[in-house]
Design goal:
The structure holds two protein chains of two kinds. Chain A has ten helices and no strands. By secondary structure, chain A is an all-alpha fold. The longest helix of chain A has 29 residues, at 32-60. Chain B is built from three helices and no strands. The two termini of chain B are 20 Å apart. Helix content of chain B is 81%, strand content 0%. Chain B is mainly alpha-helical. The chains are: A mainly alpha, B mainly alpha. The interface between A and B is large, with 46 and 38 residues.
């Protein structure tokens, strides 16, 4: 529970009390004051409470804890703690290149106008599969589409370390091809160690900052 | 008779909205996809239904001219 949740729960509780009061004393609406009270209690405040609730729930659904709460995601969560600098997700997670509490969402949401909502829609499908469908083995889980460089370049484009890295100048047009998506960042022999959940058992793990 | 009908709808509206908001409050205690789904598929529709019922109660009854002003005093 984050800092805003107790405030939201408190506010929602007040609206609940008012709504119940309106239900028990509906005759109050016979007067003008009662009509205004009913409008505020049964229309304005519930809309505000739900709007705040939607915001809170959407914010929570971007958290690492939320993504890893499905059993099938356990190995992917564990791969964030791999003690190997070649593993892209692990090095991002352990060095705070992405916020740890929003690690999955940072790299797996399209940075486009409807990226968030597309991710939510897919997430709802994942919940359905988790409880009512055939759950695949973690190693069989693949991306819907090839990983888009846009998600990497959202942070790395323009960064000195990225622009000046010698490995990014093996070919003169390498950065341009990466920017246009013709060359994937995850190409073999580049940054190809990503969530290798099939081989987790053979690795050591970072114990965490504390 | 008509007033009773409106009040009955307002009564139900209040109860349904309260129920939806209770569901919403409960989902805030648990960060989990199921909690998200409960909020989206149970809490929100209940509040929306209560709100629509309340709005329907407003437009469903036609007051004869003059009666509204008298009842408000």
């Amino acid at each position: 529970m984050n800092n805003t949740a107790p405030i939201l729960i408190f506010f929602t509780s007040i609206v609940i009390v008012l709504a119940v009061l309106m239900a028990l004393r509906a005759e109050l609406t016979r007067g003008r004051g009662g009509k205004i009270l009913a409008f505020v209690t049964l229309a304005v405040l519930p809309v505000l409470a739900v709007w705040a609730g939607v915001h809170e729930q959407l914010e929570r659904s971007t958290s690492t804890k939320f993504c890893l709460s499905c059993h099938v995601m356990h190995d992917f969560g564990q791969s964030l703690s791999l003690d190997d600098k070649a593993y892209i997700p692990a090095v991002h997670y352990q060095n705070n290149f992405v916020p740890r509490d929003h690690a999955c969402f940072t790299c797996h949401t399209d940075y486009t106008m409807f990226g968030d909502y597309r991710a939510k829609w897919r997430g709802m499908h994942h919940v359905w599969v988790e409880y009512f469908g055939k759950i695949p083995q973690p190693a069989d889980i693949k991306l819907y589409t090839p990983y888009n460089n846009r998600e990497c370049l959202h942070c790395h484009a323009g960064a000195r370390k990225y622009e000046e890295a010698s490995s990014h100048h093996k070919n003169p047009d390498m950065l341009a091809r990466a920017a246009s998506g013709k060359l994937s960042c995850l190409t073999a022999d580049c940054h190809d160690s990503v969530h290798d959940v099939a081989n987790l058992k053979d690795n050591t793990f970072w114990k965490g900052p504390n | 008779m008509a007033a009773n009908s409106i009040e009955r709808r307002i009564r139900w509206s209040g109860l349904i909205i309260a129920l939806g908001l209770i569901v919403q409050s409960l989902t805030l205690f648990w960060t989990h996809p199921l909690s998200f789904m409960a909020f989206l598929l149970i809490g929100c529709p209940l509040v929306a239904a209560g709100l629509l019922l309340y709005l329907y109660s407003l437009v469903s009854h036609h007051h004869p001219p003059g009666t509204e002003a008298e009842s408000s005093r």
